[in-house]
Amino acid sequence: MRTELTRSPRLIAPPIYRYATVGGLLIHLAFVVFFYVLGYSFMAWLNLGSSVCYAAAMQLLRRDRMEGWSGLVASELLIYAVVATAHMGWNAGFHYYLFFVIYGAYATLTSKITSRAFVTLSLIAYVLLYRYAPSGMAEGGGVPVCRMLHYLNLISTLGYTTLLSYYYRQSIERSMANLQEAIQELEILSRTDPLTGLRNRRMIYERLEEARRRHETAGEPFSLLLADIDGFKQVNDRYGHNCGDAAIQHCASLIEEAAEDGALAVRWGGEEFLVLLQGKPLQEAVALAERIRSEAERSAFRHKERQIPITLTIGVSAHRVGQRVDECIHLADVALIEGKRAGKNRVVASR
């Protein structure tokens, strides 16, 4: 089976952003009622304007316009914090929203220039408000109302910051898990032939070295089959390259199914296949190669309603102690060439 990378889904707004937007909208609507009841008409209208901003921000989220959402929310927080603090006084706690702007600018804005601009403006605004804003309310109301607003603003700012922090921790963990999966997929792709789904040369050389070490240390033998499709050039020339690719896929499936458990079949190159038979001496490898050859001869390969005869010539070699894996592969190749010269569609064991 051919291995493919998982396609990335379309980017959408994270759920926490929608929750934060709805929460901001509800808070400002509550403030509209709160200030209207207390008779603070200016603050009631200010919060009504902020509610409109959050309603617009929700629409931007639904359209997946994250940059527009981030800019609108950051602008609203910055302007609201400055105006509300200047009007209601420092002790009302509206200046806490500037800290949220600083945090959110780096957490949500994708443009570094924009995020730095919001952070700079927020810091300047904080210093100016700290220096020049009145400490108490400009319109009276007494200490209880001021203290209530202070606690509400502090709790809301800390709450949203905590939620965003938790979300980004979860997001990083998910991103790391997805990255690890992508790395594993890429590793598989780097070791897999895209046409047949079999492993490629990179994979087989690692396994051959492992098999050689086991043979050298534990005496566990292994053998190699090198199979080649007979008359493949004529198939390509007569029926086209699509037919040739289909023939390669057909033989790959046949070899993979006929090979016993523990065997590793790879596409060696072009129309050639290499099979590693771990724990198999030469005679058993030859018997398996003959079964593969017979199955290829009997099997019906069809392409576009045509039945095309396909046969395999297979060279077989067994690893010898002290032998390099390249030498073992070379012996299988020599046996394959001998089989081709002898008439094809046969199994030849190396001497």
Question: In brief, what are we looking at here?
Answer:
This protein is α+β, with helices and mostly antiparallel strands.
Explained architecture:
Keywords: Membrane, Transmembrane, Transmembrane helix. By secondary structure, the chain is an alpha+beta fold. The protein folds into 2 domains: 15-185, no CATH class; 201-349, Alpha-Beta Plaits. It has 11 helices and 7 strands. β4 (301-303) and β5 form a beta hairpin. The radius of gyration is 36 Å and the shape is elongated. The relative contact order is 0.08.
Helix tally equals: 11
The radius of gyration over CA amounts to: 36 Å
List the strand order in the largest sheet.
2-3-1-6-7
The beta-strand count equals 7
Query: What is the average per-residue confidence, as pLDDT, rounded to a whole number?
Result: 87
Structural class: alpha+beta
Strand percentage lies at 5-15%
- End-to-end CA span: 35 Å
Q: Which percent range fits the helix content?
A: 55-70%
Biggest beta sheet attributes: 5 strands, mixed
H/E series, N to C?
HHHHHHHEHHEEHEEEHE
Keywords: Membrane, Transmembrane, Transmembrane helix
InterPro entries: Diguanylate_Cyclase, GGDEF_dom, Nucleotide_cyclase, Rev_trsase/Diguanyl_cyclase
Protein name: GGDEF domain-containing protein
